[in-house]
Amino acid sequence: MATETLGADAAAAAPGMPQLDFSTWGNQIFWLIVTLVVIYMVLSRVALPRIAGILAERQGTITNDIAAAEDLKVKAQEAEAAYDKALLDARTEAHRIVAEAKAEIQSDLDAAIAKADAEIAAKAAESEKAIADIRAGAAVAIEEVAKDTAKEIVAAMGGSADAASITAAVDARLKG
Amino acid sequence: MADKAETGGLVFHPMDQFIIQPIFGGDVTWYTPTNAALWMGLSIVAIILLLVVGSSKRGIVPTRSQSIAELAYGFVYKMVEDICGKEGLKFFPYIMTLFMFIVCANFLGLIPTSFTPTSHFAVTVVLALAVFITVTVVGFVKNGAAFLGLFWVSSAPLPLRPVLAIIEVISYFVRPVSHSIRLAGNVMAGHAVIKVFAGFAAIAAVSPVAVLGITAMYGLEVLVSFIQAYVFTILTCVYLKDALHPHH
Questions:
Q1: N or C: which end of chain A has fewer CB within 10 A?
Q2: How far apart are CA A145 and CA A108, in angstroms?
Q3: pLDDT at B248
Q4: CA A23 to chain centre
Q5: With contacts defined as CB-CB under 8 Å, which chain B residues touch A6?
């Protein structure tokens, strides 16, 4: 709208295309060159290196982060493996301890049983010996009683017999 | 509108928006601050705001303006790298300057009542000639006389080559012309058409259509502003590729 209000007098001054009004070319070219030089300076000195830096930094950060993530992943896998191994170790250890305890108990039990058996055997032998003693004692006593009785019977019947012959006779009888 | 009411008829001045006006009055000499100078200066300000102030926080996680700055950087950087290869990256600040200037001047020119420096042949001819001279100088400095191989199409049959060479030479010298007129022509035409629609808007009967037309053209111009900056930049890259690798 502004150009229209200006337009009335300006249009008269510059008929046709203002682009072909060569009197303004010098001015435009001068300002264009100034503009381009300024933009070139700003871009090549400040803007482009800075943006390139930002992009490189971001690329670096992303690469580092990915590497770090991969590291952590590997570490996690290692930790998992270690955990599994520890679990396995603990389990075998537990099995070992259980087996050991079982064996120990078994050996204790075996020892106790053996000891008890031995004691029982000793006791049995002792008893047998006592019985044998008693039996032997009984046999001697019977012999004695038989000799005494035989002597008394011989005496009572009026016979006189010496002790030695009676003993021999009783012994012979006892053997027979 | 006021003078239309006074003259009582339709007055079209679609080209008046392109007139170079001295800001402080007086004649237009080579150093006079004009509206062209003002809007070129504003495009510098816009570029500084976007690329320098916008990236000043150097955030790993970018802010909105920083991410636009990075986007612009990446866009042009990738374009130069893809087309010209690694050697072309020396010219990246130069090409970035061209792109940022054109895109900012175009977009600032879309502000109503503003002035668009890139609608003037004086500006685009200088830009295109700068590219043309750069490409020619770089071509001869890097390749010596072998740069002339650009015009000698070795893949064509031998009898055709001289003819093709003439065509190639002509097309080479037409490059700055097409390069500059494409940009200024597109920008100027769009702005002029908007102005014509605005003139029709003074007639009550057709004004809704005219206003719709302005809106549609404005949308198109937003597109054109970017696309023309892109086209100018990509053609610069293509020409530069010819200078760096002259063999087809």
A1: C
A2: 54
A3: 59
A4: 95
A5: 16, 19, 21
- B9 or B4, which is more confident? B9
Q: For the segment B80-112, what is each residue's pLDDT rounded down to a tens digit?
A: 999 999 999 999 999 999 999 999 999 999 999
Helix, strand and coil content of chain B, in percent to the nearest 5, comes to: 75, 0, 25
Angstrom distance (rounded) from CA A15 to CA A25: 16
pLDDT value of residue B3:
45
Q: Which residues contact B133 (CB under 8 A, 6 or more apart)?
A: none
Task: State the Cα–Cα distance between residues B14 and B189, nearest whole angstrom.
Answer: 10
Q: How many residues does chain B have?
A: 248
Contact predicate B34/A10, CB 8 Å: no
pTM of the model: 0.74
B22: three-class secondary structure by DSSP: strand
Cβ density class B132-160: b for 16+ within 10 Å, e for less: bebbbebbeeebeeebeebbebeeeeeee
Closest alpha carbon to B212 in B224, B194, B189, B226: B194
**What own/partner pairs with CB < 8 Å and gap ≥ 24 does A171-175 have?**
A171/A143, A173/A146, A174/A143, A174/A146
User: What ipTM was estimated for this complex?
Assistant: 0.89
Residues with pLDDT less than 50, chain A: 1-14
pLDDT over 90, % of chain B? 69
- Chain B interface includes A12 (CB < 8 A): no
